[in-house]
Write a structure and sequence with these properties.
It comes from Hemiselmis andersenii. By secondary structure, this protein is mostly beta strands. The protein is about 10% helix and about 35% strand. The chain folds into three domains: about 40-170, Immunoglobulins (Immunoglobulin-like), CATH 2.60.40; about 175-285, Immunoglobulins (Immunoglobulin-like, Sandwich), CATH 2.60.40; about 285-415, no CATH class. It has seven helices and 22 strands. A hairpin with an 8-residue loop joins strand 14 (about 220-225) and strand 15. The radius of gyration is 39 Å and the shape is elongated.
Length: about 425
Amino acid sequence: GVTLQVTVLLALPENSSQVSVDFIVNVTDPSGANQEMPMLEIMGKGGVGGALPTFPVKNLAYQGFEFGLQLKGSDMQETPVGCMGTLEQCKVGFRTSFGFTLGPMPRAVRFSTVRDSNPGYMDMSWVPCDGDLGITTMCFDAVDSHSNVTTGMTLPSKVSEQRCLSVEVQEDPPPTLELLPMGNLTVTMGNETNVTAVAMDANCNDMVKIEVSYGLLVPIRDTVRTVGGGCGGSVAREMIFKPTLKMGGYSQEICVHAVDTGGVCNGAMPNRVTKCFTVRVARCAYTLQLDEPLQDLAEQLGMDWIRLWSLNQALLHPDAIVHSGQRVSVGMMYKVAPKDTIADLTRRLGMPLQQLHDLNYGLASMTSGETELVEAGVMELCVVPDPCKGSKTSVYSGLVYTDGAFVAPTERREAA
């Protein structure tokens, strides 16, 4: 018999003439036997992570990925009000169960059946797709139900305080990718160089993987591990490169790709982020391995140990077993001049052709013996002159190399 007046004040959005309003009127009997107001909790999927923030705080969801939650209804009332027996007597046969009422829901929302009694639970699952971008508000109530299974008596139900969630649906973000160290690398033959790629995704429901495009230089070890402190299946990929002997002068671009799943909506494509870096193998430098004598290294390079020892004045004895990781020179750098050809250099320096190829990766495939090296893009070479077999005089005898060209000494004086 109570008359209830409800006044609703609305601020209509621009260009809107009407808006729907949903509310629940909970009529209770103060003198009734059901005195406890049920409680409603809205928790993360599976009850993990505690209570979700309610309106007006926004919960974040991503297009193509599940947004899940768990509704929990509970009631502190253990017996009907007015029961004349002891607490244990009044509890006999008294049961509490829960249902849940829902406000307007987005399309494709799915709910489980209610399980357990007090507390009671119901799960919600929603995968937002096309048309769901933006902010969606969902409202829920818990409704209790008390009965005595012995007497068949039931009590009027009560409804909890309504709780609403504001969910902002955004497009699935691309993963992030970081390379350590950053930038291009210059590495040494025989030396291990570590490159680590770390990929993360702001979408904790997404998974990310790392793909790598290699060339001739492939890692001797390539391991993938999960990374703490992030979400979205954050991973790190550690690549250890070790250029072999005779790779001096080799250059290769390596591209690393961080790829996520893209979600489950129709037509969804994985997001891909790519970063590339160049690895250059230094010429004329080599890192000795454990217990590797100079004589063995010299034989692999087609030279005698005396010449190799003479290139490394810091080594005080040629037969000493140097420590692993020591860097040695396997030749000397030569700046290519105009008119230089492979045939001219081998004749002038007394070097075997195969040795010149071994010390300068790719030289054999880039040029023929009579091609000018500068025209082929070769600006520097690693060489090992042999004074016993090389030319007695310079090919360019009487000329001076200055400003990128060979000129007669008189021309240089006039230019000055």
